[in-house]
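Backbones bend. Our protein:
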Amino acid sequence: MKTFAILLSGGTGERVGINMPKQYIKIAGKPIICYSLLEFDKNIKIDGIIVVAKKEWHEFIQKWVNENPLKKEIIY
């Protein structure tokens, strides 16, 4: 049996008052969501990561993953 982490990334950023969801803002050179992806990727108990995000952000996330290959399977 495989174990998947579910990364919820459906916010809009309205309460923060920005033009993008806050999980995609860069901090120290990386979008916030990527810190979670990297932590899940390091966890030996997790076989893959399911990212729950609006379709318009899939390409943004995939571009980062392509530039920073992860060992785990990513599913949108």
About this structure: Residues 52 and 69 are 19 Å apart (CA to CA). DSSP finds two helices and five strands in the chain.
